[in-house]
Amino acid sequence: MRALRRFSLKREGSGRWLLLAFVPLAAAWLATMFAAAAAEPLDRKTPEAEGLPRVFLLDAQTLAATRGRVAAGAAELTAAVAKLRGEARAALETGPFSVMDKAIIPPSGDKHDYMSLGTYWWPDPDKPDGLPYVRRDGEVNPEGEMYDRKPLGEMTAAVETLALAYYLTGHEPYATHAGRLLRTWFLDEATWMNPHLEYGQAIPGRMTGRGIGIIDTAQLARLVDAVGLLGGSPAWPVADQQQLQTWFGQYLTWLRQSKHGRDEAGAANNHGTWYDVQVAAFALFVGQEEIARDVLRQVPGRRIAKQIEPDGRQPLELARTRSFDYSSMNLRGMFELATLGRQVGVDLWNFESADGRSIRRALEWLIPFATGQVPWTHRQIHDVAPERLAPLLRRAAIVYQEPRYQSAAGQIAGDPAERMHLLWPEPAAKRQNTVLRD
């Protein structure tokens, strides 16, 4: 199989290179997967068996209901669907993207290896060659665009848009191009990315890669949901699905066993949160539910109780130069973990420590700042963007059945055609009330 291949791993500090054969790891992974499959009850209904998309961060039944409303011409979704179609048409003109497109060659000498630059690291102005780079927290070095993080983001965004547009409208060209983008980045031998991040967020003059770089692939947790929306399209056959799951199985193994992965698993801030999101989402995608359940069971004590104060503050995120951005970004990761928890029977939405630390408390703490009731006094070198909290408020309104959250989301959402109206629609009762008032 094409995806079962060798790749180089850099052992930090050793100065030596080892070529690792992946076949033993793959065999171990397959054995684990088969054991897990054998342990599953035979009468368990999968989303696919019920005619639903195979998604993990999104709600399959809600998506199916939205598709039905779109097909029926629901007036309240007209603007959102029109905007989505426009974005999908633009996405048809993008890519394909590949790690092979970068001009820079990774330390391994293999351009199939992903590489990115430390986001906030810049040449030292006091050194003739700029080395070693120095940190300017919150200030993004544009040199990073020469590496792989930007095309990865563009590929992911395009596939998400195309897949959602395909699922809701049935327009096959959207699925065709999404499949092409996925095959180019992950499956085609000439252009694929090796399944590891040894060179993520490198710092010139200091290190060739760091565990911190793993946050670059947090967006792939959304991408595996997008793949689920392509199910049934002839543009995304079963063979491609299986090969992509093999790729993510390899990447999951690397995340859990590599030094970089272990470092990121131990991170106390948003990096630890988003590491857990990736491991849980990828484990579900490749059918290793027990790995996902084990990670999610540890979230209450390992993430929520340690990162959120009893009043809802997130001190490690407030210490950053973009404190509102990082507080909302980490909370979004917590929301993703809570959503994944529902897949395996772990309730994170309602967890609360003895002294009151919880996901909901963190959201409550941010609301007055997002709605403008209270000025943001923590360090924020860029303008506060309260609209980042709108999708979280919409999701919280649904989970907690709290109208106050929906009201707050309406205050800060801005664009009425925001995609959240398709992914997390307003409750049916409210839509009915709107119709009656009209």
Write the layout of secondary structure elements.
Layout: E1 7-10, E2 17-20, H1 23-39, H2 60-71, H3 78-91, E3 115-117, E4 121-122, E5 134-135, H4 149-169, H5 172-187, E6 199-202, H6 220-229, H7 238-257, H8 259-265, H9 270-285, H10 289-297, H11 299-307, H12 315-318, H13 323-341, H14 359-370, H15 390-400, H16 403-412, H17 420-423, H18 428-437
Parallel strand pairs: 3-6
Antiparallel strand pairs: 1-2, 4-5
Helix pairs in contact: 3-4, 4-5, 4-6, 5-7, 7-8, 7-9, 9-10, 9-13, 10-13, 13-14, 15-16
The overall strand count is 6
Q: What is the name of the CATH topology of the largest domain?
A: Glycosyltransferase
In total, how many domains does the architecture comprise? 2
From the coordinates shown, what is the CATH architecture of the largest domain?
Answer: Alpha/alpha barrel
What fraction, in percent, of the residue positions are helical? 40-55%
Class of secondary structure makeup: mainly alpha
Radius of gyration: 22 Å
Provide the CATH top-level class of the largest domain: Mainly Alpha
Can you give the mean pLDDT?
88
List the uncertain runs. 1-47, 432-438
Number of helices: 18
- What's the main sheet like? 2 strands, antiparallel
What does this structure look like?
- With 438 residues, this protein is mainly alpha-helical.
- Helices cover 50% and strands 4% of the residues.
- It has two domains: 1-11 and 78-265, Glycosyltransferase; 288-438, Alpha/alpha barrel (Glycosyltransferase), CATH 1.50.10.100.
- It has helices spanning 23-39, 60-71, 78-91, 149-169, 172-187, 220-229, 238-257, 259-265, 270-285, 289-297, 299-307, 315-318, 323-341, 359-370, 390-400, 403-412, 420-423, 428-437; strands at 7-10, 17-20, 115-117, 121-122, 134-135, 199-202.
- Helix 7 (238-257) crosses helix 8, helix 7 (238-257) runs antiparallel to helix 9 and helix 15 (390-400) packs antiparallel against helix 16 (403-412).
- Residues 1-47 and 432-438 have low confidence and may be disordered.
